Amino acid sequence: MATKKILITGKDGQLGRELQNQCPVEFEIIALSRSELDISNGIIVQSVLQKIRPDIVINTAAYTAVDRAEQEQDIAYAINSKGAENLAKTCKDLSIRLIQVSTDFVFDGKKSTPYQTEDKVSPLGVYGASKAEAEAVIQKLLPDAVIVRTAWVYATHGSNFLNTMLRLMSERDELNVVADQVGTPTWTGTLARVLYSLSMKEKIKGIFHCTDLGVASWYDFAVAIFDEGKLHGLLPAEKKLTINAITTDDYPTPADRPAYSVLDKSRLLNELDIELNSWRESLRQAFLSRY
Ligand SMILES: NC(=O)c1ccc[n+]([C@@H]2O[C@H](COP(=O)([O-])OP(=O)(O)OC[C@H]3O[C@@H](n4cnc5c(N)ncnc54)[C@H](OP(=O)(O)O)[C@@H]3O)[C@@H](O)[C@H]2O)c1
Questions:
Q1: How far is the CA of 59 from the centre of ligand 1 (A)?
Q2: Which of 206, 186, 184 is nearest to 114 (CA)?
């Protein structure tokens, strides 16, 4: 079987970096940064894809500053929605398979049971709305595309909840963390494995949900990070820390976030020959793999 060429957008992001770390031998990858491929520019998208002629594009590039998006609506839409449209148009013209990464923020969090892939989207903020529009435009232009919604993504590199917590935990004796938003922390290692698995299944299309397994609040996640941080020597074993469970109302942010964003993963588990780990096990694996 000929090696398939995968173009990865957003090379320097959390997921872009993990995809480069984990590339299986079956694929040749070309990962491009924003300066090499700005997805918001349709002409550039067309010329770069025409030159590289990948078999698959995995679009990890995104405007991910959820709170700033409330002020920078035009930029968020230009990257998340128009960027996705540019990729979908060119992928259609050149018969390239597109795998788009999307988010739990397309939902409003008003459910109390896991979101199904076919549930109606109803984003609370600009970031979620721009990603929901991306999903819609991709499905319209390129019905064979794959859309993978994920949530609460972290890596051992980059700027994210895990690294922010580790820093604050080393600096402080007391922390307040929101306990009334629940979802599932998801390691980039899990996502990369699943995205490559989807890349191998040529006929698969449509929306999938991919997170680690289980349910946690940000408070639960912080407590687990503290335990693992001590276990793996990133925090002193004798470190004493009080972690207070607070409410969303105690910690107002410019963008509203879904209170409940657990995603149902049955389609993914049924159609791919893969297993997912609990978020707690993935956190342990993440620490073991990199720190
Ligand atoms: N992080 C999460 O918790 C989370 C949750 C659910 C879904 N997701 C989705 O998962 C995907 C990956 O997220 P992530 O956490 O890896 O994001 P990230 O770390 O913020 O990385 C995003 C990357 O996209 C690049 N980018 C921004 N604008 C671009 C443009 N116009 N053209 C090309 N590249 C551009 C950024 O480049 P610069 O460094 O130059 O800005 C950055 O390297 C995204 O689709 C995101 O929406 C993330």
A1: 9
A2: 184
Helix or strand (DSSP H, E) at 105: none
Asked if residues 40 and 130 have their Cβ atoms less than 8 Å apart, the reply is no
Rounded to the nearest 5 degrees, what angle is found at the Cα of 67, between the Cα atoms of 87 and 98? 15
Burial class (CB in 10 A: 0-12, 13-18, 19+), 118: exposed
The vertex-81 CA angle with 141 and 67, nearest 5°, equals: 155
* Candidates 3.30.590.10, 1.10.246.40, 3.40.50.10770, 3.40.50.720; CATH matching 4-159+185-211+261-278: 3.40.50.720
pLDDT digits (tens, 9 = 90+) for 48-105: 999 999 999 999 999 999 999 999 999 999 999 999 999 999 999 999 999 999 999 9
| Beta strand extents in the chain (DSSP E only) | 4-9, 27-32, 56-59, 97-103, 146-150, 153-154, 174-178, 182-183, 186-187, 206-209, 216-217, 242-246
10 near 60, Cβ under 8 Å? yes
Count of other CB atoms within 10 angstroms of residue 201? 12
Distance separating the N- and C-terminal Cα atoms of the chain: 36
Secondary structure of residue 240 in the 3-state scheme? coil
Tens of pLDDT, residues 124-165: 999 999 999 999 999 999 999 999 999 999 999 988 999 999
Nearest CA to ligand 1 atom 32: 38
Cα-only R_g, the chain: 19
Q: Are the CB atoms for 196 and 22 separated by under 8 Å?
A: yes
Catalytic residue positions, numbered: 127
The pick from 64, 66, 210 for probing ligand 1's pocket by mutation, whose C-beta has the most ligand atoms within 8 angstroms, reads: 64
Is the shortest distance between the CB of 79 and ligand 1 below 6 Å? yes
